[in-house]
Amino acid sequence: MVAPVPRGRPLGTPSGLNTASAAVQQAFGKALADLAAAHVPYDVARGTLEYVVRDGRKIPLPGGPGDPDGDFNAVYQDIAGHPGADPSMGSSYMQIVTWTGGSRCPQASTLVTYSESANPASPHAADQTELFSQRRWATGYFCPAQVAAHALSTTVLRSR
Q1: pLDDT tens per residue across all 160 residues of the chain
Q2: Is there a single domain that holds both residue 37 and residue 52?
Q3: Where do the H-state alpha helices sit in the chain?
Q4: Which end of the chain is more exposed for a tag (fewer CB within 10 A), N or C?
Q5: Alpha carbon distances (Å) from 83 to 97, 120, 124
Q6: Same domain, 92 and 37
Q7: What is the residue range of 3's domain?
Q8: Cα dist from 113 to 21, 55, 128, 149, whole Å
């Protein structure tokens, strides 16, 4: 049985979607039935179900299934079977780079979506996941002067 189409809110995305199409209506009905079978309300906020747990805190995850749906942040989670588990696939490292006129150093924003440390005691166990949740970025440094100015520590390795 196909679940009824909810009334009251017009479908606004994706832009140009032909909601009168029988194929679209069938796909929408199947999606609603899949949600009902998983005991997920159709109008639940995404971050309520798609999240990770760090230090006992729920951190909502943005994103979607990725291309071909046009989502920049791909997040694949088994929200029905393992809510709060780390995604099985999706965005992990993202980087946006640009150069401004006359500068040899790029301006970069980066993000390790599930943070840099798997050690729950580390201060880096959730820091970038929090940024990802808030749709914010970390600044990336590439030129020697930038790296030196923002280094937390330095280790020199020498060959024998």
Answers
A1: 334 444 445 545 566 788 899 999 999 899 899 888 888 888 887 778 888 888 888 999 887 766 665 667 788 887 777 778 888 788 888 899 998 888 888 999 999 988 888 898 998 899 999 999 998 999 999 899 999 999 989 899 999 8
A2: no
A3: 22-37, 46-49, 127-133, 144-150
A4: C
A5: 34, 19, 23
A6: no
A7: 1-7+15-43
A8: 37, 16, 6, 24
